[in-house]
Automatic annotation (TrEMBL):
Stored Pfam families: Glyoxalase
Domain VOC residue range list: 5-116
Protein's recorded name: VOC family protein
Superkingdom classification of source: Bacteria
PROSITE patterns reported for this sequence: VOC
Record-linked CDD domains: SgaA_N_like
InterPro entries noted in UniProt: Anthracycline_SecMetBiosynth, Glyas_Bleomycin-R_OHBP_Dase, Glyas_Fos-R_dOase_dom, VOC_core
Amino acid sequence: MSHGDITHVEIPVSDFSAATQFYGAVFGWNIAESPGFEGYPMWRAPNGISGGALVERTAEFTQPRSAVEVDSIDETLARAESSGGRVRTPKTAITDTSWWAVFEDPDGNLIEVYESAA
């Protein structure tokens, strides 16, 4: 079964600089690009536990999305499909030891899932 922990939140923005200033001022987030993730500024909350990224706003990406950590993306996507959902982005490598995917629930909500080999 899956972990079920929310591990990451992506916020679509039109202006990375303005959004970095806004969320830094409002929540105290430290927002910076990480090596290997250029164009994907990531934030870390002051508690050091929660985090996410600012992503380019597109026609399909207009609302924040949370990533849920799972033990197996393949099994989770299969359960989502057999329960009435559909895969929108198949299992995709982030690094050599982590992957992500996106499925749509029956109400049209997009849910990201994350799997780490660690």
